[in-house]
Every structure is written in structure tokens, then in C-alpha cells.
Amino acid sequence: MTDIRQSKNYAKYLESQGWIVERIEKTNYFIKSLTLQAPLIKKPLILGSFLKIQRPNKINFEIIQRLENKYRVFQTIIEPVNELDALICRQYSYKLSKSPYLPSKTIQIDLTQSIDSIFRNFSKNTRYSIKRGESVVIKECSTADEIRLFYNAWKKSVNFNRYVPSLRSLLNLKKSFPQSSSLFLTSHNKFGDIIGGALFTTSSHEDVSDYITFYWYGFTNKEGRTSLSQYSLLYQGILWAKRHGSKVFDFEGIYDERFPNKTWLGFTHFKKSFGGKEALYPGCYTKFRFPV
After folding, report:
1. How far is CA 79 from CA 38, 76, 100, 136, in A?
2. Yes or no: is domain 113-246 CATH 2.40.260.10?
3. Are strands 277-280 and 248-250 parallel, antiparallel or unpaired?
4. What are the DSSP E strand ranges found in the chain?
5. How far apart are the first and last CA of the chain?
6. Which residues does residue 54 pair with via DSSP β-bridges, in sequence order?
7. Neighbour order of strands in the sheet with 194-202
8. Distance between alpha carbon 97 and the CA centroid of its chain, in Å?
9. Residue 208 has pLDDT above 60, yes or no
10. What is the DSSP letter of 87?
């Protein structure tokens, strides 16, 4: 299956975030330049670039070398999709990084099953939580103003040290994944206040034939957690993915003992309660070079 990082939608999104994108033979190559702005120099001086290739269906080292020379790349990151590709990376002197850029372990639900089958595979507590959350009002955010409210509620719901994408980034994401390619959801209390939110993305039908829906982000405030609205939000995302023809629903990361990050343990328990099967990726391979 084609990873969303190899979709045209994602390429457009990274371009909006300041990356250079070279799409060659249906593979996305992402380049970020390191520049120096000196007082006496009118144009920024390009010191070198960073190149990343994330879960490509095929790794072409000739193209990589050509781009490394073109953009004066000092570091190349490859995140292979399977162990065979990881072995090839090692043969080309790439080293395994201690910190993957993409989640190296995830859970995936087979959406070709019936909704009843999918629901039965949820844990007992998850099924109860979804039933309990039926009274929570859930709305879709599609306009810029609605996404701004989504962002503000997210910022208020988490501690200052928790990562929250900028409003500009979220608006660019919606533009890059328009219409049925992304879903912003918010849950509300009886007064209409936002108590939680979730964001899902998928590739368009024109882009890939076996596309996946990803659960990218989710948040709840204290009231949202008390009402268990996070379960209803995620379930609505699964239903949306099923309706739009996705074959797989990907939870976009759980705790991986190979690359331990204990802050992931809490939401890993939550995600595992929805059933599905674990999927492993080799991790992140990197190689440094002197720009020429």
C-alpha cells in the first residue's frame, strides 16, 4: 500500500511549509535548504540541504545521488517501508537512527470488513465509551474560521510544552487535502463549547488505488476526557474512512520498544482498545556527506 507521504496531497502540503519537492517516478523527495543571511549579502547563502524520502515504494539511489549533488545535500534520511529496503540502505552505508521521523510501529484496521465486525473488535470498554458518548455533539470543521476555533481549542486543551501545529500549518493542510481528503472534527458540550477534536487525512482516489486513512491528531480538554468524547471522535473518523472507500485505517503510531518514548504509552493503550493489527517499520536510516 502506498503511504500518504508519497501522495500528491502531502507533497503539496510540504511545499506550503517551505520544503522543495521533487516528484520523480511517483516518489516524493523532500528537500529543506539551510541558509545564511549575512548583512552584506543581498540573497541568502545556501550552505547545504537536508533530503528525506519517506516510505517510498521503490528506493532509487541514482536519483538520490543526483538530487544530493543538485541541492548540495549534507544529510539524507530514508525511512524504508520494509526490512528488505532497510538492508539495501545498510549496503549503501546508511546507519539506523535512534529517533525515527515517522512512527515505526502502528495499528491498522482492515476497513474491508463490515462496520459491525469492526465494532465487535473494539474492547468492551471502548464500545461502552462510544455508546456513552452518543450524546456528545460532533461537528465537522471545513472553513478557515472553524479551523481557527479548532486550533484555539487545541491550544487551550494541552500544556505549553505539548506540540500543536500552527494555525497556518492547519490551514495549509486543509488546502492541500481538500474536500474528502481530510476531516477536522470537534466535540462540543451542551453549551456549544469545544471539548475535543480530531484530524484525519487520506489520499485522493486519483493519487493511489489502495489508499489509507490516517488518524493524525487528537486532543481533549478535561471535560472532553470526562465525557469520553475522544472515543466518539475517533469512531466517527473510522466511519468516515469506511464511507470514502479507504481500505485501511492507520492510527499513525504507538509505543515501540525498539525506539522507546514513554510519553507514547498513554495514547497507545487508547489506540489498542480499538482492535486492529500491529504493523512494524524498520525505522529511519541516515547518511551524512560533504556537499559538493
Report:
1. 34, 10, 8, 39
2. no
3. unpaired
4. 20-24, 27-36, 45-54, 73-79, 95-96, 105-110, 137-141, 182-188, 194-202, 212-220, 248-250, 277-280, 285-288
5. 36
6. 79
7. 137-141, 182-188, 194-202, 212-220, 248-250, 105-110, 277-280
8. 19
9. no
10. H
Helix (H) or strand (E) holding 272: helix 265-272
282 Cβ neighbours under 8 A, 6+ residues apart: 79, 80, 82, 83, 85, 86, 96, 104
Pairing of strands 248-250, 212-220: parallel
Query: Is 0.85 surpassed by the pTM of this model?
Result: yes
CB atoms under 10 Å from CB of 111, counted, come to: 21
**Among positive and negative, which fits the CA dihedral 162, 230, 279, 260?**
positive
Side-chain-facing half-sphere of 278: CA atoms under 13 Å: 12
What is the residue extent of each domain of the chain? 4-102+282-288, 113-246
For the segment 13-30, what is each residue's pLDDT rounded down to a tens digit? 999 999 999 999 999 999
Classify residue 153 by burial, with Cβ atoms within 10 Å: 0-12, 13-18, 19+: buried
Sheet with strand 27-36: strands edge to edge: 20-24, 27-36, 45-54, 73-79, 285-288, 95-96
Is the pLDDT higher at 56 or at 160?
56
**Helix (H, G, I), strand (E, B), or coil: what is residue 75?**
strand
* Phi, psi values for residue 286, rounded to 5°: -135, 155
* Nearest-angstrom CA–CA distance, 3 and 57: 8
Residue 87 CB coordination number (10 Å): 11
DSSP code at position 234: H
- C-alpha distances in Å from residue 230, one per residue of 18, 188, 261, 271, 283: 32, 11, 22, 11, 29
